[in-house]
Structure formats: structure tokens, C-alpha cells
Design goal:
Layout: E1 10-15, H1 16-23, E2 29-32, E3 49-55, E4 83-98, H2 101-106, H3 115-122, E5 130-147, E6 158-160, E7 173-174, H4 178-192
Parallel strand pairs: 1-3
Antiparallel strand pairs: 1-6, 2-5, 3-4, 4-5, 5-7
Length: 195
């Protein structure tokens, strides 16, 4: 499959095991509240295509219902990190801003987060809501490794990456077949309704 490369190499920061679940076809959605550096307007889906930039913290696996049998990565604390390893790319297919907890709860079988984590994100601030994105994930033909920069740190969702990463999109393969992805998309549309 040939992907149309975006204008810039943008990384979307997400938990390592969530990146793995997307590139392994375990889930097709991303739940997002936003980070403290998202700006006055809060989190926005600013890009139609993005590289999956894995992040890590010590208790990540305890907050998920699914973890790969063999975790593909091991991370030092962010202040000691020297490199970035990226395995996947995703395209943004649909976005919902969901303020109804029952709809968020109905998505339980579609993602890997524990119930407590989802609830915590939903009620994080004055506005109880989540940004839910349907994405199509792709596995890069090889892991892309490059030096870590302090500009990638902090509580932000989007980071600009070296342009050479875009060359790997030529050999990227879908995490799910067209039929399997369409089935997953249909389940999300049935739960979340029209935008």
C-alpha cells in the first residue's frame, strides 16, 4: 500500500503499548484529553497523518487491559532517554468529541485502557469529555530509530520529527485488512453516532 506522505514528519505522542496495539491491529481508536502544553483551546486533532511516537512511564502496563506478550520496547526515564524508536504511522479517519459517559463506557471492548484510566481522562477538568479518533494504523517496513531531543519532551501531543522518517511510508503495511478495519469502524460509528 502506498501512503501519501504528509507535508511534515509529525509525531503523535502516545503510550508505548497503545502504539503497539494500533500497529498490531488490536484497536483502531485513540482516546485523548490533552496535555498541559496544548494551549488555551485544549487538545485538537491537528494532523491527518502522523507517526506514532511511543512514550513510557513506570506504571504504564498496570493501567492497561492488554500488554504485548513480549513488550517490544524498554524505556529509561525521559530525562535519560537517548533515542526514539518508531514502528508505526496512522491516518486520522474520524473524530468525535464525546460528552456522554455512557457512550464512552460502551467503547470498552474497542480499546486496551483500564476503566479507571478512561474515567480519569473523561472527568479530568471542568468539561467532562474525551476526543475519540478513529485511525487507520500502518506498520513501517522497519523500525525507525533516531536521536532523542529535549524538544520531544513535556506534556504535549504533537512533535516535529526528522523528515527522513517520511521515506518509510512507501513500504508501510496496514495493521488490519480493509474488511477488518471497516468492521471496527462500523462498531465505533454504531456506538458514537454521527459527528
Amino acid at each position: 500500500m502506498i501512503l501519501t506522505p504528509p507535508a511534515a514528519a509529525i509525531g503523535f505522542k502516545e503510550w508505548s503499548f497503545v502504539c503497539d496495539s494500533l500497529t498490531q491491529g488490536v484497536q483502531t481508536l485513540v482516546l485523548r484529553k490533552g496535555g498541559i502544553h496544548e494551549g488555551r483551546g485544549g487538545f485538537e486533532w491537528k494532523h491527518r497523518g502522523f507517526l506514532l511516537f511511543p512514550t513510557w512511564f513506570h506504571h504504564q502496563a498496570e493501567k492497561l487491559r492488554w500488554v504485548p506478550e513480549k513488550a517490544q520496547r524498554a524505556f529509561p526515564p525521559e530525562e535519560e532517554r537517548t533515542s526514539v524508536d518508531i514502528d508505526g504511522y496512522a491516518t486520522l479517519e474520524q473524530v468525535w468529541k464525546v460528552t456522554d459517559w455512557d457512550r464512552v463506557e460502551a467503547l470498552r471492548s474497542e480499546h486496551i485502557w483500564n476503566d479507571d484510566v478512561v474515567r480519569e481522562r473523561f472527568v479530568y477538568d471542568d468539561e467532562s469529555c474525551l476526543h475519540i479518533a478513529l485511525v487507520r494504523a500502518y506498520k513501517l517496513p522497519q523500525r525507525w530509530s533516531f536521536p532523542y531531543s529535549k524538544s520531544y519532551g513535556g506534556c504535549r501531543s504533537w512533535v516535529t520529527l526528522p523528515e527522513e522518517g517520511l521515506t518509510l511510508l512507501d513500504g508501510a503495511t496496514p495493521a488490519l485488512s480493509d474488511a477488518a478495519w471497516q468492521e471496527s469502524a462500523a462498531r465505533l460509528h454504531a456506538i458514537l453516532g454521527p459527528v
